[in-house]
Write a structure and sequence with these properties.
The protein is of the alpha/beta class. The chain has 13 helices and seven strands. It has helices spanning 35-40, 62-80, 97-105, 132-143, 153-166, 190-203, 215-221, 224-227, 246-263, 273-284, 288-304, 312-322, 324-327, and strands at residues 86-91, 111-113, 116-118, 121-125, 171-175, 207-212, 230-236. The strands form two sheets. The chain has a five-stranded parallel β-sheet with strand order 4-5-6-1-7, sandwiched between helices. A two-stranded antiparallel ribbon has the order 2-3. Helix 4 (132-143) packs parallel to helix 5 and helix 9 (246-263) packs across helix 11. The longest helix has 19 residues, at 62-80.
Amino acid sequence: MKINTITCVGAQNESMAIISSDDLPEIVDESAIVYESMRSGIIDTTNADDLKKLSKNIIHYPMMSKIVEMIRDCIELSKESNEPQCMGIKGGPGSGKTTILLDFAAGFPRKYTDSGSVIPLLYIKTPSPVTEKALASKILEVLGDPASTSGTLPALTSRATNLIRDCGVGVVILDDFHHLIDQKTDEVLYKVADWIKVLIKETQIPYIVVSVDNHIDRILENNEQLSRLFLYVEDITPLEFDVNNEGTVIDFNNFVRLAEKKIGKEILKNDSWKEMLLRIWYATDGVVGNLMNLLRLAAVYAERAGNPFITLDDLSLAFEKRLKRHLKKEINPFLVPEGRHFDMPPIVPKKPKNKRLNKKTSLSAGK
């Protein structure tokens, strides 16, 4: 929601400066994300008619619950500590990083009162290319400053800091944090990282930063003072599936069944359902985004063919059109006829990730 002027209630009411644990939303199916908010970087759920536009596309599963609980830790411990407790979230493309955070953010709508704006949560997409001034301007733009690009860097920084305080921002989500690594030189933009460190300390609230793969680790390793402010760095990994591990089979099955409900069409069940799950897992690598893309397109093909269920043919066509080239798969697992065993090709192990240890290990949410 764009506004011509920006007036915030002010920091005289201390309850606005930090989100209370009582205000943290439970993960429920009614949570939603507004399409326009995703494009603009502004979380504005004041329009009730828009609140359910994406709810059918969101699946709440254990990893999502874990991430939300860790964000809760950061918010709560920031109130008890002398400095903010921040969090990094990383994962490959399609892992669901942004969806989890936008879903969480939708529970904290902006409020526009006669006294001014109250913005309990600020969601920012890091610009590319990014500089200190570009990021300061983006923050001011999302806060609603009509002169977000006007002024020197010190002036922009001062305005951003004051507005974050006065608008009662309790937590900042900084998406696309990997833009702090220059695409041309592959070097960490130290000045921008240091500017963020100063902003965190000045505003005294937790920041949740999000990036692809292990870029967060590189950025934090390059700035020890910034790194000290991070309570957690969590990796969102793909869903697991091992026919010899019943727990992984149950978890993957539960996710697929939830996905069927979200898209409104079920996969045709037969006696070899576990093998069907194996085919789906191989086709998607267990990546949430891949899995949803496969099932959504298969559901479209099933609907066009007049099928009440998603068939093997629907899945095969969806895989060929949507995933095969992208994932560089040699085999279409859905071309193996039902009743015949699917022999999954050997999977080349990926290089181990340089996993950053949590600074706090006593909290159950991080275990």
